[in-house]
Write a structure and sequence with these properties.
The structure holds 2 protein chains of 2 kinds. Chain A has a 5-stranded antiparallel beta sheet, covered by helices on one side. Chain A is of the alpha+beta class. The relative contact order of chain A is 0.20. Chain A is built from 3 helices and 5 strands; from the N terminus they run βααββαββ. Chain B starts with a strand and ends with a strand. In chain B, 38% of the residues are buried. Classes of the chains: A alpha+beta, B alpha/beta. Chains A and B meet through helix 1, helix 2 and helix 3 of A and helix 2 and helix 3 of B.
Amino acid sequence: MASHDQQAGITQAHSFRRSVQSLPAIAEFVSRFFDRTHVHGSILSAVQLSVEELFSNMVKYNPDGPESIFLRLTAANGGVRVALTDHEKEPFDVTRVSAADTSLPIEARPIGKLGIHLVREIVDTLEFEHDDGRSTITFTKHPG
Amino acid sequence: MFEIEMGDDGVIILAGRLDTAESPKAQAFLDSVPEPRVLDFSRLNYISSAGLAVLLKTQKHLMQKGNAGLKLVGVNRHIADIFRFSGFDRIFEIEASNA
């Protein structure tokens, strides 16, 4: 009988061109990983969104960085661990970004500044490390 | 892939994925409509913070002009969660999808 248990430990990685035009390919990469590893589809959109927000931030705030940004996905413990790595001179620690105030009335709401907030709401863990000019943001997401 | 168009009854229909790359297209379309009112999300399966910014900017503009705000209908469960996380459920009129 075919097993549909998650294939834990499987890792797939790819470098994507530093451009928001890479986003459809990134979404497809994540989707294919889920298909291959049987990570529960209920968290696919959440993972795709979190990857987009973090990737887009790297594109926007490190425009002079190398040509590509590295994305690694690992099936783990029923969910997925995601790592994005970029080379940047000045580390930008997303875990230290102050929370967005979502209770403000519309007149006081700033345009934008919701990307990291959404990631924090969605993912289970979020980590940042910077070493030898490379910044890596890692998050995990599990169903339920 | 993202599409936005005017339906026969004046409802604006969004379809596909409203991500960072597509948000300028969405903003340009909404800016071209004199008084957008109802946005049909039933064929939209994904929105990111860039898409939220488009909605917020449009809503602010409408309210500054004294118009009624946007009504978002057919919102799927994932997008409803995004609206809740961002507090948009307090500043927009939202109808969930029946699906």
